[in-house]
Amino acid sequence: MNYRIEKGYVHAFVKSKLNGSCITFPKISVGATENAILAATLANGKTTLKNCAIEPEIKKDLTNFLNKAGASIRWIGKRTVEINGVKKLKKISYSVMGDRIECGTFCVAAAISQGNLKIKGFDPKLINTELNLLKKVGAKIKIEQNLISIIGPKKIKNIKFIKTREYDGFPTDLQAQFMSLLCKATGKSIISDKTLSIGTTGQKELHFGTNGTKWVKITESGFLDFQKLSINGQQGTAGQYIRNTGNGGIEWATLDSRNSFGKITVGGTSLNSGSVGDTFTIAGGSNITLTPDSSNNTLTIAATQPNVFQNVAVSGQSTISADASADTFNFVAGTGIQITTDASTDTMTITNTVTAAQAADAVFKTLAVSGQSNVIASSATDTLSLAAGDGISISTNDSSKEINYRVDALPRLSKEGVLSFTNADGTTNQLPLRNFFINQSTSLPVNGGGSQVGQSTRALRMLKSDGSTFKFMVMPANSAGDGLVFTYTKADGNTVTKDITMVA
């Protein structure tokens, strides 16, 4: 590839196509990573890029866009990407992700103004660092899936020190917004964007020392090697290291005497640190929420699965308790019950298998009378008692399973009206209709007297429901076959006439 630089612009060109190669960026750069990925997509062969920028706009959005268009891009490490060149890309339709800086700017604006803001359609994990800093100043933040709710504090707290760095650190593009926010804080805050770089031009190493003695050496690969080094007039001892004091200086420090693991094993899989800059990332699975707190150096792991019952209790029965996470609550079908499960629809069907003939002992739980309160059985041992009112008698017969009701009140018109009949002699009688049977008499006492009605005399007997005589009417007959005419008047006013033939 040939190139030239003119007026701050790089002009690069090749005669045919680019060839894949392995490239390690000396410095993490968003623009360099993006351009290298784009170039490698259509280059010949495989390209491996190391020490890449991992902003979500690159590792997520750009990668997804190019792969959808036909590219072959695969991230094989935190900052390492592998690209297999393709001959061409296809036309696609694609929606880019939300702007992190724009979302962060709105959040800062809400914090400054004591506002109440909701931002929808944006993944909160993409600005986790910024949201944690806003919590430090006192903002109330609620995070849900693709939703950020923020309420600005009445009193803004200061932040002692903020250092801009590459993702997933604090972005330089939000430095000005946070500076405005911290201007209203109650204490001193420091925001730093300084990066110290030491290097040489055309040299493999950079040496520091006196009289030709190489006391400190910075190698080409960036490692610091020193024989003698004094900081603030002190020379470090064995086991000490150099650290940032947090106020712009450096100092000697001693490592904590804490054990550390070279690898982490989960199940049969080991997670090994491949380099000093490797980061161990904890990812939340299904129904798991991870909440890091950088101010307290804590990580809260919370389960978000729906609430479940540990105990199942049935009145009068032993309580079933889950005493292990692998416990299974089993449903057992009793007599007349069938249980059917369907794993595809996550349903369980409980079916009554008792036939109509088997259900002859079914009972009603609720008895309703129009205009009256319902009578409801509250237990299996409840008894329904039938009480006789005025003029009513109730008798039961256990052998025949019968309940008989009798009206003991004086004759009175029922809803059926009156019965009119014409005697053989032409006279007319009327009787109020009640729940009685009409029966032809034979030789029976007349009206409770001693005289008998013989076969030559016809009579009409009104019977009560218990079979006793209510009313006895003698109707002379000249001969067998003489008839009676009954006129029956209903409550609705309609009249029914019936002819009754008297038989000897």
User: Nearest-angstrom radius of gyration?
Assistant: 50 Å
Helix content: 10-25%
Judged by helices, strands and strand pairing, the structural class is mainly beta
- Span from first to last CA? 137 Å
What percent of residues are in strands?
A: 25-35%
The CATH homologous superfamily of the domain at 100-192 is called: Enolpyruvate transferase domain
> What is the tally of beta strands?
37
Overall shape: it is elongated
CATH topology value of the domain at 100-192: UDP-n-acetylglucosamine1-carboxyvinyl-transferase, Chain
What's the arrangement of strands in the largest beta sheet? 3-4-6-5
Q: What number is the mean pLDDT?
A: 78
Name of the level-1 CATH class of the domain at 100-192: Alpha Beta
Number of helices: 5
Low-confidence stretches: 196-202, 410-416, 433-457, 477-481
- The CATH architecture classification of the domain at 100-192 is Alpha-beta prism
The largest pleated sheet is described as: 4 strands, mixed
